[in-house]
Amino acid sequence: MISAVLVQLSEIGITSGYGLVVFFLIGLLGGAHCIGMCGPLVATYAERLETDDRWSGALTLYEVRQHTLFNLGRTMSYALIGAVFGTAGALLYGTIGLAGILGPVQGVVGICIGVAILGMGVTRVAGYQQGAVEGVIADTGIGSVFARTYTVISTRIDRWVNGIGIVGLGALHGLLPCMLLYPAFLYAFAQGSPVHGLLSLAALGLGTIPSVFLYGTVIQTVSARQRQVVHYGLGVLFIGLGYVLLAMGLMRFGVMLPLPDIPYYQPIADSGAVA
Description:
This protein has helices at 2-15, 17-29, 31-47, 61-98, 102-125, 132-138, 141-160, 166-173, 181-191, 194-217, 224-251. By secondary structure, the protein is mainly alpha-helical. Helix 4 packs antiparallel against helix 5, helix 4 (61-98) runs antiparallel to helix 10 and helix 5 packs antiparallel against helix 9 (181-191). Mean pLDDT is 76; it is low at 5-15 and 262-275.
């Protein structure tokens, strides 16, 4: 297992810089989405931060620290969940590899997840209404889990907002339904690498920090029109990610689609290093 992780780290250092940049851009563009979906939570805890009256109306170092800790908590949560999805994919590929049918299964996974991410991208380009998919999920059985998570967050704001516990608020934030994160988690699963999943989602989380940080400190509104424009950019990026997965999946069955001449990550199972 240790040797597998070392191989993944070496491969990521050489071949995955492009992918991490893409995930960072998704996060950077997705900041407007985060504000639209999670702005009320950020505004709520920002209002409850204890401030010195002598600094009324001014941003204090204490507030900067608390907002930074919140966003670091979010990023760590995204990264850990990405690692979990990557681990799940690695376990699947490792198990299937023992049965001698690794290639076809990787192909099917790549095709299915590629089509799913493509669909998410197309809906954004076609005029995605923010919160629509999250609302559908909230109406399912899974939605009760998210509802309980939001309740946990809201009941802990007063206790955690003014101390190191605000990191926990940010971490719980990663468990809420988000159409920005779903494609990224699926991509991490399809890649089948816990290390790549962790780094990719960490890059995405870091990309969201500027917008969410500014919203919590100096900006309180982002127009619906601005968010809609950003959704088009996100849609294009998701279409690109989905197409790469789809092409790689079809490649397992001998169907060759044109791919950009860029380095991309190959699942670690291909190297035979899964142990």
